[in-house]
Amino acid sequence: MPSERALGVAVVGTGRMGADHVRRLHHVVSGARVTAVVDIDAERARTLADAIEGCTAYTEPAAAMAAQDVDAVLIASPGPAHEAALLEALDRDLPVLCEKPLTPDAASALRVVEAEQKLGHRRVQVGFMRRYDAEYTKLKRLLDSGELGRTLMLHQRHRNPAMPSWFTEEMLINDSVVHEMDVTRWLLDQEITAVTVHKPAPTSYAPEGMSDPQLVLFETESGALVDVEIFGHCGYGYQVQAEAVCERGVVRIDDEHGPRLTADGRWGGRVTPDYLERFEDAYDREVQAWADATRRGETTGPSVWDGYAAAAVCEAGVLSQREGRRVRVELIERPALYK
Ligand code: ISE
């Protein structure tokens, strides 16, 4: 596409995340505009499209991707619908930003890796937005500088106030902990080799059939140990924390995101209510970086290899969650395109 005009983006899937990305592309991101919205709910798509000049509503991703004014695709439909949309976009050599998870399992993620390899160049960025968060970025820079020596352990906490009614126990791993899988691989620059899931006595607020919270342990190639507390129903807000224990120091990022108020004999702050607010800046930076790179004719950020590796760790995690044992992660050799 000519870089002097705005990137025409088709947003596939207009649920909570997709609708937020439509708003972001329309109001926040520069150099891009929403030219198509796609949803199986035609009414929903039409309502969104009607509010944006030059935007057309579709019910089929392929129809939107064939349109003249669509230069790139943002996929935010539910995970099981990603593979078909990704393969369609790769078939047309269209740049993609695909929300996490890339696909629901390692076999389907591998088919996407193979399709991109066949194309011969990267076209897909995966939506692991924490890589664009200011605090995570600083943590990454510090660890990469070598100032603190090697990283020996990571302690991570991921707490949600409550999960939607359709959220299953497996999703604690493949919808929530998947972020810590990517963060771990990215911060430590190595693969996760094994996963063990432990289940303490659950909170009485856990829904039927879900053991909540859970403690997930990753082992990595260098022998680092990483623990993740995932808590789906902590009740008080949305909180994500990470601490790296290194040879010459400890570095921690946490939840001080607002002004700290001192009044009435107390001090304190506010806990963000959800991930859209906690990671709002990260989402903005992620989508802007994608639009900018796409207009330059490049693909940057988390790759389909990162999506595939996370899917393989998810599979091991869900098996460990089910069987209560340590499970090794199986990965193919990393193809040259992703080295
Ligand atoms: C949700 O799908 C997300 O991606 C959020 O970032 C995560 O914190 C939440 O647990 C998931 O359900």
SSE arrangement:
Elements: E1 7-12, H1 16-27, E2 32-38, H2 42-50, E3 56-58, H3 61-65, E4 72-75, H4 82-91, E5 96-99, H5 106-119, E6 124-127, H6 134-145, E7 151-159, H7 169-188, E8 192-198, E9 214-220, E10 225-231, E11 239-246, E12 249-253, E13 261-263, E14 266-268, H8 275-278, H9 280-295, H10 304-323, E15 327-328
Parallel strand pairs: 1-2, 1-4, 2-3, 4-5, 5-6, 7-10
Antiparallel strand pairs: 7-11, 8-9, 8-15, 9-10, 11-12, 13-14
Helix pairs in contact: 4-5, 5-10, 7-10
Task: Please tell me about this protein's structure.
This protein is of the alpha/beta class. The chain has 2 domains: 7-130 and 281-302, 3-Layer(aba) Sandwich (Rossmann fold), CATH 3.40.50.720; 133-278 and 311-338, 2-Layer Sandwich (Dihydrodipicolinate Reductase, domain 2), CATH 3.30.360. 36% of the residues lie in helices and 23% in strands. It is built from 10 helices and 15 strands. It has helices at 16-27, 42-50, 61-65, 82-91, 106-119, 134-145, 169-188, 275-278, 280-295, 304-323, and strands at residues 7-12, 32-38, 56-58, 72-75, 96-99, 124-127, 151-159, 192-198, 214-220, 225-231, 239-246, 249-253, 261-263, 266-268, 327-328. The protein has a 7-stranded mixed sheet, covered by helices on one side. Strand 9 (214-220) and strand 10 form a beta hairpin. Helix 5 packs antiparallel against helix 10. The mean pLDDT is 96. The site of (2R,3S,4s,5R,6S)-2,3,4,5,6-pentahydroxycyclohexanone (ISE) has 5 residues, from helix 7.
